[in-house]
Amino acid sequence: MSSLRIGFLPASLSGASHTALRIALLYASVGSAWIVVSDAALWQTGAAAPGTALQTIKGLAYVAATGVALFWLVRHGCLGEERRTERLFLGNPSPMWIIDLDDLRFLAVNEAACRVYGYAEAEFLTMTLTDLRAATDRTELRALLAPLRTGGSHVGTWQHLARDGRLVATRVSGHRIDHDGHCAALVLAQDISAEVAARTAVERSEARFHQLLDSLDEVLWLADLEGRSLYRSRAHAEVYGRPLAEFESDALHWLRCVHADDRERALQAADRLRRDGQCESEYRIVRPDGSVRWLRDRKRLIYEDGKPVMQGGIAYDVTQRKAASEALKRLNETLEARVRERTAELEAVNDDLEAFSYSAAHDLKTPLAAIRGVGQLLALKHGGALGDTGRELLGYIEKGAVEMEALIDALLALAKVSRRELRCCANDASALARAVLGELSTRYPGTALHCEVEDGLVIHADPDLLRSLLSNLLGNAVKYSSRVAQPRVSFGRQPDSADSYFVRDNGAGFEVQDPEKLFRPFQRFHSEREFAGSGVGLATCRRIVLRHGGDIWLTSTPGEGTTVYFRLPGCSAAAEPAEATRGPWSEGRQ
């Protein structure tokens, strides 16, 4: 690379010898002039002593000798300075060059310039500065370099073109120098491509983030601790109905938009923000057109190194939610009133229906008793005249009346379940079940019934209704298992529950198709020829269980048996005695 010679004196760039010669000649000229002029003045005044001419020659010789010495000293110092400057120029890690300010030719470049831009030194020295500038920058180039010609400087950021066509972001600083007789500029170009790329990435990220924030319906904002706006999303304009500039220029503008009745609430929330670092509140705002909107406002302080540096928040427009809530509240109030009215109507209708059913069933017993009585009287007094056929027909009448009376009794029992007032207490269910099974065993004297009753079962319920429940369930179990070789009936508590129980048999069983239909009145699982019954037993059980706040369900398999489960959670708090109630069935046998 060619050598670079940068002058020692300010604003000059020349050879060391030239600079030293100028200084030496100046010194010699001034010294010689002083000696000649002063000695001439002495000759004119006649004050010159003998030998003055010799002294003048000696003085001039001294000036000449010291001038030569000064030349060599200055030249040596300038050469050292030039070498140091050359090393700084050539070895600088950033691109540097010297350009002619008249034609913008490159006069010198360093190795870093060749490395960054991809040109060889010889190529650089055939180029001008415009070859490195983008086409859009070239028209401004000479105007920007004009201050350098008058001794000024230039600092700016430019895009330079490298040999491979890529753009190099550069921060350029330059100042005027003299270089080998040229009006030139020394330029330092720092490659800031990474810095620009990072800044561009941050700006793009911020732009995308702001686009995302501006796309939200929520009001987002940031402010300093004094409330001066740093950022506000576009939702401000839509929600408040006011331009963003009003909020950015006035820190308390948001508060003036708050409804007068809610302003104190908003101020209290701001006090909590300063005290606790966060707050949440709801208030109304008034838009310029007079319309009112509800906002749910959440604010918090933002900390750095444990100290609050700014504040921010988000506000939701909850006007529709508030309106929906009020509408729902009014609807609930209306529905509650309607439900109460409808419930009262249904209760009245149910009471009337139950009263009618009870009265109808009760009144049917009198004509049934009359039918049975007439049939028995006819058989007693005129049985012989009726013959076998007549007596057989009277038997059918008697049997139908008995079955009808049993059905009426079942319906009356079902009606009583709903009409009677509950009297809850603790019952010894194990003893009660054994007593019921003892009574049932007398109805099937030829059956080798095996009964299993879990000990220690205490159920809180109405004692009469509990007995009716167990009588129906255990009665069905005994009835449907009476025709198997080894009938078995079990009663106990489910192992995974404290208030659920079961009654199980290994009898005929049936196909379960509609579980809800099983507990309706007059639903039969077998024909009357197979097993007699009224079809009201399970309906009665269901009503008893529901009155105690429980539930009942069953599983059954044809030929394997049936298991009925029921849950009785209620009445525990209403139990009257501390110990289980023991009724007349307590001493019953299994």
SSE inventory with pairings:
Layout: H1 16-45, H2 52-91, E1 96-100, E2 106-109, H3 111-117, H4 121-124, H5 135-149, E3 153-161, E4 167-179, E5 182-191, H6 193-215, E6 219-224, E7 229-232, H7 235-240, H8 244-249, H9 253-257, H10 263-276, E8 278-286, E9 292-304, E10 307-317, H11 319-419, E11 425-428, H12 429-441, E12 450-453, E13 458-461, H13 463-481, E14 488-493, E15 500-505, H14 537-547, E16 551-557, E17 561-567
Parallel strand pairs: 12-14
Antiparallel strand pairs: 1-2, 1-5, 3-4, 4-5, 6-7, 6-10, 8-9, 9-10, 11-13, 14-15, 15-17, 16-17
Helix pairs in contact: 1-2, 11-14, 12-13, 13-14
Describe the structure.
- By secondary structure, the protein is α+β, with helices and mostly antiparallel strands.
- It folds into five domains: about 70 residues; about 110 residues, Beta-Lactamase (2-Layer Sandwich), CATH 3.30.450; about 100 residues, Beta-Lactamase (2-Layer Sandwich); about 100 residues, Helix Hairpins (Orthogonal Bundle); about 150 residues, 2-Layer Sandwich (Heat Shock Protein 90).
- The protein is built from 14 helices and 17 strands.
- The strands form four sheets. A five-stranded antiparallel sheet has the order 2-1-5-4-3, sandwiched between helices.
- Strand 8 and strand 9 form a beta hairpin.
- The longest helix has about 100 residues.
- It is rod-shaped, with a radius of gyration of 59 Å.
- It starts with 15 loop residues before the first helix and ends in a 23-residue tail after the last strand.
- The N terminus and C terminus are likely disordered.
